[in-house]
Design goal:
Elements (H helix, E strand, L loop, with lengths): L1 H22 L8 H19 L2 H11 L9 H30 L1 H20 L4 H13 L3 H12 L5 H5 L1 H20 L2 H4 L7 H5 L3 H21 L10 H6 L7 H7 L4 H4 L2 H29 L11 H30 L1 H9 L2 H18 L4 H31 L6 H32 L7 H18 L11
Helix pairs in contact: 2-7, 2-9, 2-12, 3-4, 4-5, 4-6, 4-7, 4-21, 5-6, 5-7, 5-12, 7-21, 9-12, 9-17, 16-20, 16-21, 16-22, 17-18, 17-20, 18-20, 18-22, 19-20, 19-22, 21-22
Length: 477
């Protein structure tokens, strides 16, 4: 009796351990070709949007709209960029909802075609309003950001989703590096290579060449996507493809009706909380993105670091590349170890510390008489914190994907998220830079009021993060 009882106890103690180990799902391999195509589409977006940055201020000056007032150039340049996000916010949800009905590929074709045409129109623009129309057209026709995240969600599951979303930041960083390079080198080709570009066309349209090169990148991506990419929406797959991918045809009918479900019925508490986190995250991130170059360029007597434009460009490029490389190398591993919710909460908890670094650097510059190795070390510490902060994006994309009730509602959910993020990105930079100016001009909290406001908003985001679901599960579980 004793022997059998002891044996039973051993079995009862050991069995749950084996069961827990067996219940852990093996990691699904990523569909490399399909993910690779999506990453190329993701690459051309920042190439096209950032290629205008090196010459946009000079272009506006040459249009004569500022009447020689160089201080107003930044105002008009800001209008052009903000209008893109406003236009995108007005239409991205409609595009993603449409992709739930007709498929992802047709909407991507429209978005890429619109981006290609609009960047060509931008290069041919000779008035301010033609620049505005071309950027608005790009925003109105471009729902690709939401649709691409939707496709990643459909191509992955809970075991490999983090690995796929980790690729987005580094691809964006590469595009953000290549785009300004194209714009800076190829703008005004008659000045740089007069023999090669002697035709009067290049004198009349001195900024068309970088736009044409960016358009060629988009056209190449469109061609590759049209030929090699497969439709991921289950109701638009060929019957043979659905069977191959393990999607029973009987599932298509109930799922298809979800694409026509009123939007209000999709706004479950989980969806609302997740999208609110994404909107707040995007707002704070774009605010930091606007504050950092402003702080770096502000003279030291006003609380900045007084860097030159070339130094600012080098630091921003260094920030971007390091954040992207860190995500690719470590994001998926950290998600597997900590879980999405813990990682998100840990990441957003870094934001107050990121903001505190600004007044610390101002104090160090004033006490040490300039920028030295201590200030540089503090700036590097801020970079480390931003690496941790950046992981919040990958995790929030995972939560958005998991919050959709079915794959055919996935486009609508990502569209809602992208709409919220676009609105935040349209408003955030202006609010942050205005708060910075008011803080310095009126010496509010010794010029640090902008950081206090953003720290409070960072605390609100940390609370919002605590409301996210504890676990992420596949929609078919």
């Amino acid at each position: 009796m004793d022997t059998s009882n002891s044996h039973e106890i051993i079995v009862n103690e050991i069995t749950p351990l084996f069961h827990a180990e067996a219940s852990k799902k093996p990691k699904t391999p990523l569909p490399k070709r399909q993910i690779g195509i999506l990453m190329m589409l993701q690459l051309v977006e920042p190439i096209a949007s950032t290629s205008i940055y090196p010459y946009i201020n000079q272009l506006i000056s040459e249009l004569g709209i500022t009447r020689g007032n160089h201080a107003a150039v930044g105002y008009y340049a800001g209008i052009i960029e903000s209008l893109f996000f406003v236009a995108q916010a007005l239409t991205v949800l409609r595009w993603t909802r449409l992709s739930d009905r007709i498929g992802r590929k047709p909407v991507l074709v429209i978005g890429l075609s619109g981006a290609c045409i609009s960047i060509l129109c931008f290069g041919l623009s000779r008035t301010f309003w033609s620049l505005v129309i071309s950027r608005c057209m790009c925003g109105f026709l471009n729902g690709n950001a939401g649709v691409m995240k939707t496709m990643v969600g459909e191509l992955t599951d809970s075991t490999n989703m983090a690995q796929a979303f980790a690729m987005f930041p580094i691809v964006w960083c590469i595009g953000g590096f290549v785009g300004p390079l194209i714009g800076g080198i190829l703008a005004r080709p008659q000045d740089n290579w007069p023999a090669l570009f002697a035709n009067s066309f290049w004198g009349k349209y001195p900024y068309f060449l970088p736009c044409a090169v960016a358009a060629c990148w988009i056209a190449l991506a469109l061609l590759m996507m049209s030929i090699f990419s497969e439709e991921t929406l289950s109701t638009q797959r060929r019957p043979m493809a659905s069977a191959t991918l393990g999607v029973p045809s009987s599932e298509s009918l109930p799922q298809q009706s979800m694409a026509y479900t009123p939007l209000q019925s999709l706004l479950t508490p989980t969806v609302v909380v997740t999208i609110a986190n994404y909107a707040m995250l995007a707002s704070l991130d774009v605010s930091f993105g606007a504050l950092l170059p402003l702080f770096l360029s502000t003279p030291t007597n006003l609380g900045g670091l007084g860097f030159t434009p070339s130094s600012i460009g080098s630091w921003l490029a260094f920030f971007g590349i390091m954040v992207g490389v860190f995500q690719v190398l470590f994001f998926a591993k950290i998600v597997d170890r900590l879980g999405p919710k813990r990682l998100f909460c840990m990441s957003v908890s870094c934001f107050p510390s990121v903001m505190v670094m600004f007044p610390i650097m101002s104090w160090l510059v004033s006490t040490r008489g300039g920028v030295d190795h201590v200030v540089t070390f503090t700036l590097l510490c801020q970079l480390v914190l931003m690496m941790i902060w950046s992981m919040a994006f990958g995790t929030v994309f995972m939560f958005i994907t998991a919050s959709a009730p079915t794959n055919t509602a996935l486009g609508a959910i990502h569209g809602l998220g992208q709409t919220s993020a676009s609105m935040a990105r349209a408003v955030g930079p202006a609010l942050a830079t205005s708060l910075f100016a008011v803080s310095k001009e009126r010496n509010l909290l010794a010029g640090n009021a902008v950081y206090v406001v953003l720290i409070i908003l960072g605390g609100a985001l940390r609370w919002l993060g605590s409301q996210l679901p504890d676990e992420i599960q596949d929609r078919n579980e």
